[in-house]
Amino acid sequence: MSIIPSFFGGRRTNVFDPFSLDIWDPFEGFPFNNNNNFRSLSDRVGSSETASFAHANIDWRETADAHVFKADVPGLKKEEVKVQVEDDRVLQISGERNKESEEKGDTWHRVERSSGKFMRRFRLPENAKVDQVKAAMENGVLTVTVPKVEVKKPDVKSIQISG
Predict the structure, then answer these.
(1) Where are the beta strands (DSSP E) in 14-147?
(2) For the whole model, what pTM was predicted?
(3) I need a surface site. Which of 1, 34, 140, 141 has the fewest CB within 10 A?
(4) How far apart are CA 90 and CA 61, in angstroms?
(5) Averaged in consecutive runs of 10 residues, what is the pLDDT profile of the chain (163 residues)?
């Protein structure tokens, strides 16, 4: 288990993964003066409201038959989550958790649950059948299954060597 410093957002991201389209901002969370040019990538790419819930944890596992993505989205209904395939090979998982409405007279002592939008994108490999993607949600876990193209094993013919 690796320990990731809090200034990296606590995300487990493999920067060497060629299939990942996650945008990693090493300066995310650092305070910068607003009148200089050091704005974080998250400010330039998306709105600041995505920051609190933008890091939905997702596992990507490849089996013999499929690529399987599992996303933790506790408390969300399936209507609040979108699964799309863009540009032929980019799987996009997005959603939004709305802020709980405040009632007059309520006193909030602590607010720890996050709200806002999230979006994760993954470049699918050539062996993915993008026209057969399936998604299911159970107990706050979204499972997206992308079947793989069957790889035909090449016919190997032994050649007799004369001489």
Answers:
(1) 58-62, 66-72, 81-86, 90-97, 116-123, 134-138, 141-147
(2) 0.60
(3) 1
(4) 16
(5) 42 49 51 45 41 71 96 91 92 88 81 84 93 96 95 86 89
